[in-house]
Design brief:
Length: 301
């Protein structure tokens, strides 16, 4: 038997080992070069780019529908100071900072490379006001209570919604405020200018129009739409004698109790409110002495 020479195998082994060694050196060199590149980029190139004057903010456009806060103050709250670059602007963080005041409804921050940022701030618009021990606050159409920056504690010329904040449970406070707002909105749709809508500690609602100067009691948990329809029927039926009326009590289902201070008007008036295409209201008067004292508008505090 002829043995194969051992020398070719050794030759092949040396060649393979050399090839592996060469690749290892190349890979090690590439890794070292990559690490050096990352180091240079992180500590020299990137900081240089981030702070380069080319990317410093040159234009900051600010849009806000409130005149109580200066544009410079809004830019400061968004973190846009002198020397800030476009790379340093965190749009999400800036929007959160701008939305912190309760009067802000929406805030948007948009970056435009290389050196421009736009701020847009939309304020809440008050439809009513309310009071607590700290002063006057506003209420928007969504039922959000907010304070107006720069109001200075002034009492706004708006309808006041009172009493709701005295409920112990948060959910009950929200429900009472929503009913107050529904009564306000419904009366406004009927063309009635409202001075105040109040809810007492028992949950009974009373509305005070600007004119006529009367109190309209809705009772506890009223059916807002139906009760306002009855109120409108009574006001229309007694339009000639409204100056003598002091109170309309709608807390009785399907009825309206009309009170006058001097007893010169019927003390009880049954009024069934007709729907849009329904029958005419059925009005019948029951005359009796009205000894009720004149109701007055509740203390707004």
């Amino acid at each position: 038997m002829t043995r194969k020479p051992f020398k070719p195998f050794l030759k092949r082994f040396k060649s393979t080992a050399f090839e592996v060694s060469r690749k290892g050196v190349l890979l090690g060199g590439a890794a070292a070069l990559l690490c050096a590149s990352v180091y240079v980029a992180e500590f020299h190139v990137i900081p240089g780019v981030l702070s380069h004057p080319y990317f410093k903010l040159r234009t900051v456009k600010i849009s806000c529908d409130s005149r109580t806060v200066a544009p410079q103050e809004l830019a400061l709250r968004a973190g846009l100071t002198r020397g800030t670059t476009i790379w340093q602007v965190d749009a999400d963080a800036s929007e959160r900072a701008l939305r912190e005041p309760s009067w802000v409804k929406e805030a948007h921050v948009v970056k435009r490379f290389p050196s421009q940022v736009s701020l847009s701030v939309t304020r809440r618009h008050a439809v009513a006001a309310t009071l607590d021990e700290h002063g006057a606050f506003f209420i928007d159409a969504d039922g959000v209570v907010f304070s107006e920056e720069g109001a200075g504690g002034n009492y706004p010329d708006l309808p006041y919604l009172t009493g709701w904040q005295h409920a112990s449970a948060r959910g009950e406070r929200a429900a009472r405020l929503r009913t107050l707002m529904d009564l306000l909105a419904g009366a406004s749709e009927l063309g009635i200018t409202v001075s105040q809508v109040d809810v007492d500690e028992h949950g009974a609602y009373t509305l005070f129009p600007e004119s006529p100067r009367i109190a309209v009691a809705f009772g506890v948990a009223p059916d807002v739409e139906e009760s306002l329809a009855r109120m409108n029927t009574v006001l229309a039926a007694l339009s000639d004698t409204l100056p003598s009326i002091r109170e309309i009590d709608l807390s009785f289902a399907g009825r309206a109790v009309v009170k006058a201070a001097q007893g010169g008007l019927p003390a009880l008036l049954t009024a069934k409110a007709g729907l849009d295409n329904g029958p005419e209201p059925d009005l019948s008067e029951i005359v009796e002495a009205a000894g009720a004292s004149t109701p007055r508008e509740r203390d707004r505090g």
